[in-house]
Every structure is written in C-alpha cells, then in structure tokens.
C-alpha cells in the first residue's frame, strides 16, 4: 500500500444554491523522518469570508484532544501524542462551502474559485496537508499579492461527486441526468447520480460544473484532451483544444511522457490562466479576443498552461519561494511550441510576449520579494516569467540543443512526483555541461 496521503472526498454540489457539502477523510503517513507535534492543513477556502464552515472534525476516530486553530488559510492541529515516523493519522472532516462570487479587483489576485452566472469552479476546495521540510518545517505559505503560494505533495485522491439543483433541461423528464457538464482533473466512472474518480500520485484535484459548456475532444496517444468553452466561443474553444493537444504531444517528446489519462482546458470567468493537476483554466478574456491566428495570447497561454503539467504537476516546486522554477520553464515552453508548430509566429512571440516589456529583474525572488506599486505585477512577471525565458534561451545557446534538452529530460525524470528546487535544477545541469555559467548566472540570479 502506498504511504502517500490518501484523500477520500465525497461532495454534493447544489448548483442553484452555490453550496457544496463535503465529507473528507485524510489518511496521512508521517514520512518526514521526525516525530510531529502538530499537523498543519491548508484551508484555502477559509480565505473567503463566510465560505468555509467546519461542522465536524475527528482525529483517529475521536474529537481532537485540544483546540485547533484556523486562521486565514491554515489550520493547526496539536496532537495529543507525537506522530512517530511511519505512523498513520486518520482525519475525518465534515464541512460546507458557501461558494463566493469573486468580482475582479485590482487589489486581489484572481483565482478561479467560486461561482459565476455560468459556471462553478472548485479549486483547492478541500483541506490538505502541505509538504514538511526537515529544515523549514511545514511548507505552508501565506498568499502573496501576486504569484501562487501553495506547495503540494503528490497524493492519492478518491473523489465522489454529485450535483443537485441543476437547471432543468428543456423537455427533459425529471429522471434524466441533469443538464450539467462536469470538467475534472480525471476521468469519472459514472455510477447512477455519482461521478467517481480515482487520481493517483497527483498534486490536487480540481473540477468545474456548468450548464453552458461546449465540449470538444481529441486524443493524443492514450490521452484524452477535453476543451470546455462557452458556446459563443466555439472557435476559440477549438483552438485551445488543438493547442493543448499539440503542446502535450511536443512536451511528451521533449520532457517526459504525460502520465495521466486526460487533460482538460476550461474557459473560466476570471482574469488569467491557472494550472491544476490534469486540468487548467483559461480566462474568457483570451477567448473573447481570439484572432484565429497562432500569434495570439490564447495560443501562448494554452501552451504555457499545458507545460505546467510537467513543471508544477509532475515536477513540483515551492511556488512561493522559487516561482521561477515552474514559471520560467513554462514561459519558455511557449517558445518551444511556436518553434515547432508556428515558426512564422515566433517573431511575434519574442516581440509582443517578451521584449515589448523590456524584462528585467532577478529571476530568483520569492513571490513576496517584488514590492507593490501600481506596476507590481509587472515587476514580478517581467522578472520571473519573461527574464526567466530569456535566461533559458541564453542557457540553451550556451549548452547547445542536445545538452539543453537532455538536461531538461533528466531534470524532469529525476524530479518526477517530488519537489525540485533551484539547487536540484543546477545540480542536474552541472552533469550536462562543462560550460562556465558564471556570467550567465550573475546576469539573471541574485543568489547563485
Ligand atoms: Zn504559469
């Protein structure tokens, strides 16, 4: 039996009332090598006022021995007896989520969580145990103004979903399946009214429901690609499907085989692209503006978000402390996409995605290290994403294609399902080149 954390989640969504009720079991094995005095759970839903309502909590079948704390996005649970290495702790939680309707604001970072008139998006919707680092302790970070702050261990998920309160389908009898479409990180087994999923060795489980999705599909080898778009954006939905499929085939070849059965791209009423394991969201803004050409942000960002399946999902990293590790690689993957599938648009990509912003700044800052001004998001993005891509381009030039791509493959293969760091990146890199990288590192890194 795997010693990975097992999450068993049984949830009923009342679509009309924007309400989710959840029963969650967590089987956590202490693999940290040290006795644990407390367990930390990340509760992202608790960041939204009035959203997370904990009804019941048990530890190993009884009420928790002493008071837990739940503040912002973290629950701290003191343990009566320390949990020894190798020992298993069983948690049982019952809670409701009153789903928020986030309104876009320049003061808060967009997250595709909650409900809009045409969809409900469930991301980071269950409490989970973050990784534990022997030096730093729990990798439980506060949200930043921009960038992602969560760190995920690979875990196993058994998820059972059911929806009530679906809008009635015209002419449908009440015994028919509600006219809702569910997009999720994995492929379900349908069992009456239940959608049952098993998702193993994964960072998280995200899903989305809508009465208004147009679904298109394609396969790449054994992998099913699903594109969920709103019907007014059928052409852009097809483009996000094709881009995702092509990008997946390319990254399969360049990085490592994609290990999942499916990948879903979901058009979302929020302002950005956002990756989860097996599924990503793409802003309706990109669909609205889609030009029909490859030289288009819908295409760049779809190629970017697809690359997160390798740099974020397969190879995890501390997104708060070292965001460049996944973001620079995913931005550079856009360049690899254009190079292969639309070389005529590569000049556009360099000019409008990268050089237009005159990127600058150390690429190895944390998400908290780029200070807030009106241009704060730009400072962060320009350094981590854009300058990060320029670093990788120069690294590739210095190494040559053969060494560069064998390095990337090696980095992905050796870090798969675990957490990589900048140290991992450079340790693997050293094995693939004799080149003196001092000048390059001095140019892009504050601390290398
Ligand atoms: Zn990204």
Short description:
By secondary structure, this protein is an alpha+beta fold. The chain has helices at residues 234-254, 284-288, 297-307, 324-341, 346-354, 376-399, 401-415, 422-430, 438-444; strands at 6-14, 19-29, 36-42, 52-59, 69-71, 74-83, 88-98, 114-116, 119-122, 132-133, 137-138, 155-164, 181-184, 189-191, 194-202, 207-210, 214-220, 223-229, 262-268, 273-276, 279-283, 316-317, 419-420.
User: Cα distance, first to last residue?
Assistant: 40 Å
CATH architecture: Sandwich
Tell me the CATH superfamily.
tricorn interacting facor f3 domain
| Backbone shape | globular
Give the helix level as a range of percent. 25-40%
Bound molecules: zinc ion
Mean pLDDT: 93
Radius of gyration: 22 Å
How many separate helices? 9
How would you describe what is shown here?
The chain is an alpha+beta fold and 448 residues long. It has one domain: Immunoglobulin-like (Sandwich). Helix content is 27%, strand content 30%. The protein is built from nine helices and 23 strands. Strands 4-7-2-1-12-15-14 form a seven-stranded mixed sheet, with no helix packed on it. A five-stranded mixed sheet has the order 17-18-19-21-20. It has a four-stranded antiparallel sheet with strand order 8-9-16-13, with no helix packed on it. The two termini are 40 Å apart. 43% of the residues are buried. Residues 170-178 have low confidence and may be disordered. The site of zinc ion has 4 residues, from α4.
